[in-house]
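Morning run. Coffee first, then this:
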Amino acid sequence: MDCQSLKMSTLLVLMMLVAGCATTSPVLNVTYLSDPPGAVLYQETKRFGYAPMTLQYPVTNEDQKRGYKLLKGTSVRWMSGASAEISSLRADLNTGLNQQFNFARPDNYPGREDDFRFSLELERNAIMRRQAQAQEDQAFFQMYNAISKPQQIQQPAPLVLPKPRNCTSTVVGNTVRTTCY
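And here it is:
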């Protein structure tokens, strides 16, 4: 092995060792809920989708020392226009890295029934997506099984010939007589 190759190999091994020793920082998972479900979740100006929605936040060493992570202001808006917001959220890291926060719809805002109907429609759509995915998965596995199994070649049915017979024919006048046995 020449000197250049030895240097490259040593460098590659060192890089692999350093990468193997790297630690990943913990992640805080906060699931934002809304009552009723289906409110659109916003953090500052970014729209994330319909609640329930889980967002992930990296936990720094400073957060771990403090014992909590301070999260950005978050808000939700229901289909009726009702909304709720918090300016910040203090997530206590001592209670774990999987937490929940629930936004309650204001009682005094009209359209509660519409928000519940919208929530049910979202759930129905989710069920239909899961059913469609299950059908796609089933079709894929059927196709996979059909391809992966050895193909069986069907042989044509054998030709069945009648058993040979011994026959004799005799002519008597204008008549031909045939006897088979």
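The mean pLDDT is 84. Good start to the day.
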